[in-house]
Amino acid sequence: MADGDAGQHGRGSSSIFDRRERSRHARHFRLDAQGRIAQEARHGNCRQSWRRDRRIVDAAGAAEVVAALKLDILLNPYRWKEIARTAARARVPARIGNLRRRNTLLLRCNRFVFYGRVRTGLNEGALNLRDLRALGLRLEPSNAEMAALAGLSRLEPLTAEHRALFAPGRFHLLLQTKTDGHGREWPLEHFLTLIRLLAAERVQVILSGTAAEGDIVRTACPALLAEPNVTDAFGRFTLPQLLAFIAAADGIVSASTGPVHIAAVLGIHALGIFPGGTA
């Protein structure tokens, strides 16, 4: 073969060889990947290739766990990629996807619905039930019916220390001003304006959140805690204690964070503030 021919055909030959090698290695990959990871761990190495091996082995392990559950249906209204792919690897028979959401076909769904989530006025749970249309089921519960299906019953008793935070004879309103960086937040000055609009002799405002959030509020807006009807309860609860405290309150005004959703489930008055992009 001439040098020119070698140069012309060499790339194709190399490509064929590479494909054969990749195919041969792929057949043995799952058998030896776990062993290589263990070897790397013993030697204290953390090279990127082994991290990739670990992810693949972990994905295979997750699929085995799901397959052992013998699930029949996957509802995935929020289009979580790893859950969808794991269900496909585990051969879950019915994997439902919403064609209104991008790249649904890439998630290896095999049954489909088509609906939007914007401006429906429906509870998130009621919207999620629309995935069942792929199975021929049309459930359209109202918000009131969805609320009746939700609830928390196994709550810790409210401690005497926390019960003492409530001023007798007033409406007890929790204010959750921060989100721990998980979402857009209403400015603290707006919360201060809200507090000043409330009748101090009728409404007790209790500020709740983590200890770190309390430090931020005290530094950024000390006037918020100087109001006569405000109680500082930052950093005073474990999660179970917070659930019991919310259940004992009368209402909550909260940024976009967990307590407002917990309050709604517990059946107290709950107002969530979800500010726009310019807030």
| CATH homologous superfamily caption of the domain at 160-272 | Glycogen Phosphorylase B
- Please give the order of strands in the largest beta sheet: 6-5-4-7-8
Order of helices and strands: HHEHEEHHHEHEHHEHEHE
Number of helices: 11
Helical content band: 40-55%
Please state roughly what percent of the residues sit in beta strands, choosing from under 5%, 5-15%, 15-25%, 25-35%, 35-45% or over 45%. Answer: 5-15%
- Work out the number of β strands: 8
Looking at the structure, the CATH topology of the domain at 160-272 is: Rossmann fold
What is the name of the CATH architecture of the domain at 160-272? 3-Layer(aba) Sandwich
Low-confidence stretches: 1-54
Taking the alpha carbons of the first and last residues, their distance comes to 71 Å
Radius of gyration: 28 Å
**Averaging pLDDT over every residue, what do you get?**
80
CATH class of the domain at 160-272: Alpha Beta
Give the overall shape, derived from the CA principal axes: elongated
Structural class assignment: alpha/beta
Largest sheet: 5 strands, parallel
Please give a structural write-up.
With 279 residues, the protein is an alpha/beta fold. Among the domains are: 82 residues, no CATH class; 113 residues, Rossmann fold. A five-stranded parallel β-sheet has the order 6-5-4-7-8. Strands 1-2-3 form a three-stranded parallel β-sheet, covered by helices on one side. α3 links the parallel β1 and β2.
